[in-house]
Amino acid sequence: MTKIRQASVIGTHGRAQGMTPEMISIVVAADSQLLRQLLSETLNGRSDVSVVATAPDYRRALALAEDLQVDVSIICMSMPGAELLIQALLAKHARVVALGLCREESVAVVEDGTLNDIIAAVHGVMHGAFASSTGLNAELNQLTHTEQRVLQAVTEGLSNKEIAQALGIAIPTVKHHIHSLLTKLGVRRRGEAAAIYRRAPSTGSPVRSSLRWTHRPSTLPRL
Fold first, then answer.
1. Which whole-number Å values give the CA distances from 18 to 10, 208, 222, in the listed order?
2. What is the sign of the dihedral through the CA atoms of 185, 65, 43 and 2?
3. In the chain, what are the helix, strand and coil shares in percent, each to the nearest 5?
4. How far is residue 34's CA from residue 181's CA, in Å, rounded to a whole number?
5. Residues whose CB falls within 8 Å of the CB of residue 183, separated by 6 or more in sequence, listed in order
6. What digits encode the pLDDT tens for the residues 18-54?
7. Domain 8-126 annotated CATH 3.40.50.300
């Protein structure tokens, strides 16, 4: 039996029905129909993003991204031609999230993450948080020592109460530090800040090395 591989377009002009101007429009490119369907249905259940089209190969993905003028393209790196697609999109100054190993520096990479990591990466590229590894380290290095510790705790998924207990500070102080680091990083959500931290290279990064811990944060010494 011959399988017909078709691109799927939802809505027109890069905006789906009921989509507000604040929502981020997305094209998903993957050779797995199951992955395209799961990402589309899951992301379209959110209020901040909308998958307006999906594509099974790089040629149709490139055409859809251009025709619909979407905000972000999510590319599965297992798809044949994925590297060529990303290079073509970057040449047009498009925003890209790569699912899997990718050698390009100007994209958000989610190698083995969760759906929340993908969503954070989408918001990250929308705010220019993935311009380059050097730029990311510069962004993180502008944080104070305490803000760096708080960011690490946020990346570990701790609540404000848990962060306060781990670092020996009050919950309002934690909230103050989170507000400050979000402002410095130019993002609005904790997940976006965590995505910036994860994207920063671990080798030779004074920020990453100073933030690592090997035990649960509750065992950390107080500041």
1. 11, 41, 49
2. negative
3. 50, 15, 40
4. 38
5. none
6. 566 678 999 999 999 999 999 999 999 988 899 999 9
7. no
Count the alpha carbons within 13 Å of 137 in the hemisphere toward its beta carbon. Answer: 12
Query: Which residue, chain included where needed, has tokens 């290079």?
Result: 87
Please name which of 120, 7, 129 lies closest in space to residue 67, comparing C-alpha atoms. 7
d(CA 163, CA 172): 11
Residues carrying CATH 1.10.10.10, the chain: 133-219
Q: Per-residue pLDDT tens for 156-204? A: 889 999 999 988 899 999 999 999 999 988 888 898 888 888 776 553 3
Q: Which CATH class is domain 133-219?
A: mainly alpha
Contacts of 4 (CB under 8 A, 6+ apart): none
The secondary element (H helix, E strand) that includes residue 177 is helix 171-185
